[in-house]
Amino acid sequence: MGNHREKFKDIKRLVVKVGTSTLTHEGGNVNFRCVEKLGMVLSDIMNRGIEVILVSSGAIAVGVGTMHLKERPSDIGAKQATAAVGQCVLMNIYSKFFREFGKTVGQILLTKDILEDEKSKKNVINTFNSLYEHGVIPIVNENDSVATDEVEYGEKKLLGDNDSLSAVVACLVKADLLIILSDVDGFYSGDPRKGADCKIIDDIYAIDEQITACAGGRGTKLGTGGMVTKLDAARLVMEEGIDMVLANGNDPERIYDILDGEKVGTVFVGKSKV
User: Fold this and answer.
1) pTM value > 0.85
2) pLDDT in tens, 101-116
3) What is the number of structural domains in the chain?
4) Fewer C-beta within 10 Å: the chain N or C terminus?
C-alpha cells in the first residue's frame, strides 16, 4: 500500500487539533510550556509555506482554573459561563505566544447552526481563506458558551466535541492532513491502562468492528474526548480522502516528525490514498 507517511512532506494545508489534557495541567491551569512550544512549532510550519488551522479545546478547563472551581461544572449554564471566561483567557495566551514568533491569530467560534446552513458555511470558508491570505493562523473552537447540540456534517451526526469539530473543519477547508494531539501515543489494540500487552496500531485503513471494539469511553475529567470521538473524526476525514494522525501532544515538536514522514502515532489513511 506504499509509504503514505512520505506524502506528509508535501502537504499544503494542515489542521491540528490539541486536546484539553495537552493544554492544561490536571487542575485546569494552563500548561504554558506546552502552549509556547506549540506556538513556536506552528509558526515555524507556517514559515515553510504550509497553511495551518489550530482547533483548540480547553475553554471550559481553563475557565475552571481561572475561576478556582473544584471541578468541571455539570449543568449546562455553569459550563457555558465557565467556557465564556476560559475562552477569553485561552485566546489571550495564544495571542501572546504566537506573537513572540511573529504570527497573528484569529478566533473562529463555530456552532451547529453555522455548519448546517450552506450560506453560513460558505462564509466560514471565505473567512478561513481571507485569514490565510493575510498570514493569520485561525484558532477554532466550538462556541461552548452558547452551543449544546451535537454537530452534523452532511448525513452524519457527530458528538459535540472538538475531535469531531476538527474533522469537520478539515473537510470544509479541504486539508491535506489532520493531526489530533492527545494524551496517548496512538490508537492501541486495547486499553493500555488495563493491559500491558496492548500495542499501538501504526496504520488503519478502515474502521471496522474490530477497530471499534478497541476504543474505550470518555477521556479525562476536564475534557470530553476519548477514543470513540477520535474514531468519529477519523471516519469523516477518511471518507473525504484526508489522512489523520493521532499522536501524543506532550511534545508539540512531534509535529515536525510527522511532517518529515517519520513513524509517529497512528495514521488513519484516507480512502483515496489507499
Assistant:
1) yes
2) 999 999 998 877 777 7
3) 1
4) N
